[in-house]
UniProtKB/TrEMBL annotation:
Chain intervals for the UniProt region annotation (Disordered): 1-28
Protein name, entry field: Alpha/beta hydrolase
Keyword set, alphabetical order: Hydrolase
InterPro entries for this protein: AB_hydrolase_3, AB_hydrolase_fold, GDXG_lipolytic_enzyme, Lipase_GDXG_HIS_AS
Domain of life (superkingdom): Bacteria
Keyword Hydrolase appears in the UniProt entry: yes
Annotated GO MF terms: hydrolase activity
Family indicated by similarity: Belongs to the 'GDXG' lipolytic enzyme family.
Domain Alpha/beta hydrolase fold-3 as annotated: residue spans: 76-275
Amino acid sequence: MASRASAANRRHYEALAASPQAGSDELTNEQIQHRADLHWSSLTAEPGSVDYSEVTVAGRRALWIVPEGSRADQVLFYVHGGGFVGGSIYSHRKLVGHLASAAGTKGLLVSYPMSQTAKFPAQQQHVRDAYQGLLKTGCRAEGIVVGGDSAGVGALFGGLLLAKQSALPMPAAALSISGWVDFTQSGRSYQTNRERDAFFQKPTVDFLASLVLGGLDAREASPLFADLTGMPPTYLQVGEHEALLDDSVRFAEALKAAGVETRIDIFPEMLHSFQMMAGFAPEADDAIARFAGWMRPRLARSVPPER
C-alpha cells in the first residue's frame, strides 16, 4: 500500500491539472517556470551537506551539485523534466542532490531551451553539446552516469543518439525516471491508467508534444523508435499508475532488443516522477537507494587501478 506521504505527489498533479497550462494567455513563460521551480521543488526534502555552484555549460545555465565526500572523477549528468514547458535546474536541484549523495558522485544538472522558444531537435542538440562539454573538461566517459526524468529522458536519449552519430564515447550507464520517449502517445497505459493518473491524460500530452515538435514527425523524434544499438546500460523506474507507464515498459523492451543491458522497476501505486519526494516519502527514498546501488559498481569500473 502506498504511504500517506506519497499522496503529496498526487496532490501536486491535481493542482497542476486545475491550473492554467502552457499555451494559455493566463500565464507567461516566466510564470510557468516560476511555478515549477516553487511548487515542484517543494515536494523534495533538502539534502544535507551538498554544495551548489551555478556555471555555464554549452552556453546555458547549469548547476554543479557536490555532496560532501563525493568523488571528483565521477559525475551524474542529469537532464530535468517538465514537459518541455517548465522545470529547471532549480526545480530539480534537490532531487539530483539526493541521487548524487546516495551514489557518492558529483552531479551536473543541465538546462535546455523550452518549447516556447525552440523546437526539436534543439533540446537534444543542447544535451549532446553539454555532454561533449563535460568530456572536454577531462571527465572520462567511464566515470559518467547520465540520467533524466520525464521529458528530460526524451531529451537525454535524443542527445545520446546524436552523440553516437558524432562518435562520442558513451557514458558508463543511464538512469530513466518516468521517461517520456514516445511522442506519438501510442502506449496502451494512456487508456488503462486514465482513471488513475491525476494529470497526464492523452490530450494533455499530445498538446505538449505539439508544442515542441513544430513540424517534425513525432515518430522520427521519439527515442522509442530509434536504433538504440550502442546505448549505455540503462535502469528505468516508473510508477504503476502513471499514464506514461508503457513508455518505460516499451523502451526497456526496445533497449533489450538492441542488446543493451537493461533493468526496469515498476513501483506499485506510484505516479509520474514520484522520486521527486526524496527525503519525505519512503517509496522515493527506496527508489533513490536502488539507483545508487545499481550505479556504484558501474562507476567503480572507471577507477584507475592503483600502481
